[in-house]
């Protein structure tokens, strides 16, 4: 199957180009992805370092945990979404369709976790603005910890059961591997059981 048959993933397929054509246009897209990735990644990593230093000193609030998690999600989204995924997808298609789909699913999962944490921080700010005196009783460390763990723990299993294409593609590859192993073992057993005729003709 040709490369442009996979029309869902990637700008290369959208423009129906081959690996040897329009290389300058693809280089521009690749440089754009690197720029966006560094723009997302570097500030978030800096904020992660600052928040970890606050946690080490013991001067933390529930909001700090939410900010730490959203920074980690944003950093992972930047790494997986642009630098690694763009390089592998545009210049090394031999990793396989199933792996690309899994990689794309993880990217979407990080994006959903980012949006979830933005929503949690918005609720946190509304609670503090409307009733600041009871804010610490309502938003405690346990509640913020739940907001940290739920999206991170549920991203990949949720998409594994939702996206049937990913499950079917991986299942197909596993079945092909099992079939090759089974055929190889059957062939070896057949060679062992072939009777040898020593009679003279």
Number of helices: 7
Q: How many domains in all?
A: 1
Q: Which sheet architecture does the biggest sheet show?
A: none
Which CATH architecture would you pick? Up-down Bundle
> How large, in whole angstroms, is the Cα Rg?
26 Å
Low-pLDDT sequence parts: 1-20
* DSSP summary, beta strand count: 0
Question: What class do helices, strands and sheet pairing give?
Answer: mainly alpha
What is the succession of H and E elements? HHHHHHH
In CATH terms, what is the fold-level topology? Rhopdopsin 7-helix transmembrane proteins
Overall outline: extended
Oligomeric nature of the chains: single chain
CATH class: Mainly Alpha
Proportion of beta-strand residues: under 5%
CATH H-level superfamily: Rhodopsin 7-helix transmembrane proteins
Distance between the termini: 52 Å
Mean pLDDT score, rounded? 64
| Helical fraction | over 70%
Written account of the structure:
Helices cover 79% and strands 0% of the residues. The chain has one domain: Rhodopsin 7-helix transmembrane proteins (Rhopdopsin 7-helix transmembrane proteins). The N terminus is likely disordered. Helix 2 packs antiparallel against helix 3 and helix 4 runs antiparallel to helix 7. With 201 residues, it is mostly helical. It is extended, with a radius of gyration of 26 Å.
């Amino acid at each position: 199957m040709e490369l442009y048959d996979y029309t869902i993933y990637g700008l290369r397929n959208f423009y129906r180009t081959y690996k040897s054509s329009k290389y300058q246009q693809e280089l521009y897209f690749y440089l754009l992805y690197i720029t966006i990735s560094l723009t997302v990644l570097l500030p978030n990593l800096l904020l992660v370092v600052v928040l970890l230093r606050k946690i080490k000193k013991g001067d933390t609030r529930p909001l700090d945990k939410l900010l730490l998690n959203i920074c980690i999600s944003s950093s992972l989204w930047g790494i997986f979404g642009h630098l690694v995924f763009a390089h592998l997808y545009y210049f090394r298609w031999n990793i396989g369709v199933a792996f690309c789909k899994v990689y794309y699913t993880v990217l979407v999962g990080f994006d959903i976790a980012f949006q979830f944490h933005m929503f949690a921080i918005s609720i946190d700010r509304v609670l503090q603005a409307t009733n600041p005196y009871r804010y610490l009783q309502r938003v405690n460390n346990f509640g913020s910890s739940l907001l940290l763990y739920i999206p991170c723990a549920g991203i990949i299993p949720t998409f594994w059961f939702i996206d049937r294409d990913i499950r079917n593609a991986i299942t197909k590859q596993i079945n092909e591997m099992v079939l090759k192993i089974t055929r190889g073992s059957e062939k070896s057993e057949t060679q062992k059981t072939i009777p040898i005729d020593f009679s003279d003709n």
